[in-house]
Design the sequence.
């Protein structure tokens, strides 16, 4: 299956739709199919279900850095999907197109505290 993200205002993903690979023989073929199906001229961009953080999880070629999610942003300059970030202190990693905390995650179930800019144990 091929997956396509419908973009709304500001290139924000509104929904994801699956299209058979028999139909979506190319990105443009998938876009044409969806616009004919919905009777519209919406902005659609293909996304890869198996791409995360710039890596294809099955060893294939990564596509647009991340799988699109509803509410994520399509950056046409980077040709990448970027999930929203809730924290002003986090920065965008240009290679993965994902936001990262200023302090590495300790891997112990901690949650981010934006006020102190550190990870707090989630007790």
Sequence:
């Amino acid at each position: 299956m091929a997956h396509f993200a419908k973009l709304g205002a500001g290139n924000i993903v509104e929904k994801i739709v699956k299209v058979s690979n028999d139909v979506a023989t190319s990105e443009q073929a998938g876009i044409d199919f969806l616009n004919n199906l919905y009777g519209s001229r919406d902005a659609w961009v293909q996304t890869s279900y198996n791409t995360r953080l710039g890596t294809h999880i099955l060893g294939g070629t990564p596509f647009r850095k991340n799988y699109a999610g509803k509410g994520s942003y399509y950056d046409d300059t980077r040709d990448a999907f970027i999930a929203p970030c809730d924290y002003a202190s986090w920065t965008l990693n240009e290679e993965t197109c994902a936001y990262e905390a200023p302090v590495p995650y300790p891997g112990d179930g901690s949650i981010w505290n934006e006020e102190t800019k550190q990870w707090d144990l989630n007790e």
